[in-house]
Amino acid sequence: MAPDSVERRFAAETGQRPVPKSLGLLRSRPDPVGDRSVRRQPPVSYIVNEKPRDKGDNTAIDRLMVNSNDIPLASRPVNRAAHHRADPVWISTALKSNDVLVFLLRDGELFVEHCGASLVWLGPEALDLKKAGDTIFMGLDKANTPIFALNLTAGMTQDDHLVASLGEFTDMRTAASQLPAMQANLAATARSLFEWHRNHGFCAKCGHQSGLVEAGWKRTCPNCGSEHFPRTDPVAIMLAVKGDKCLLGRGHGWPAGFWSALAGFVEPGETVEQAASRELEEEAGIKSSPENAEYLFCQPWPFPSSLMIGIIIEAETTEISVSQDELEAAQWVSRDEARQILAGTHPDIYCPPPMAVAHHILKVWAERDPLKA
Fold first, then answer.
1. 178 in the same domain as 45
2. What whole-number distance in Å separates Cα of residue 357 and Cα of residue 75?
3. Are 50 and 68 in contact (CB under 8 A)?
4. How far apart are the C-alpha atoms of 122 and 44, rounded to whole Å?
């Protein structure tokens, strides 16, 4: 992408012109982006008029969620263009092209602008970083610009590569809550994939070291030929309700006052509704029936790689019997209390932030008309 087109994209999305400054990433040759842009501009969203949120503005993720496409970390995905993954020539050409967009991770952290409002976007010069590791092809944006995630090895610091002026490495949870929806989705996807590669470097069938293929979306074993695909663990996260009350729990070691919906992994041979009912009884002693479970929405959760499946389930009993192996405590709270908790005005309890699906499960129930719930 020529500098002029970079500036046009920036102007169209933000109404501003880039700040004149060089990336300064390359020691041996001129910066290919030129001296008119600090960094590459973000990918073009498929959603018309999507604008980055100001730091601290949770409006886009604090409204009542309707379906999974609205959920933080899930909304505004790019075109994954999976048909390109198995074409190494195309991938290599795209990664070296002048218009490629590359964002960085290191040890699960994201490289973001100092203000936290955007990932730092680099071009092909990102590959010249001394400790550059694996790359993953994330897909194409609306302008068919290829997008890659680059994982940097553990010893890398931004000072090593003269990128300190561009941004900083930040914890995923902190960073994702401030990023525009599409960037948060890209970041969550990349983190899950890199964590999978880090933890599954050897073949589960023969024990031989496996290799990354298909642009980061598969591993193969050179010894036995087995193929391994990225893992996603389904988790039922459920809010048990009875009349005008819902059940909240807290785990061992959680911050004082922090309560949330209960959750547990879906086991082989069961549905998510059955898992919700089983986990509810195992953790809190509350009986329920899977047929009285209501699916709401789901959320990819990259810690390390879960799919959180939101459920509201009608409780059949109310007496709590907490399993100390699972929870520290559980309690019933009223709908009015739930509204206070969400508003941050409850004197003793606070809940997960809007980035977490538990927040939105509680919000759906709390804002329902109790006569129609």
1. yes
2. 12
3. no
4. 15
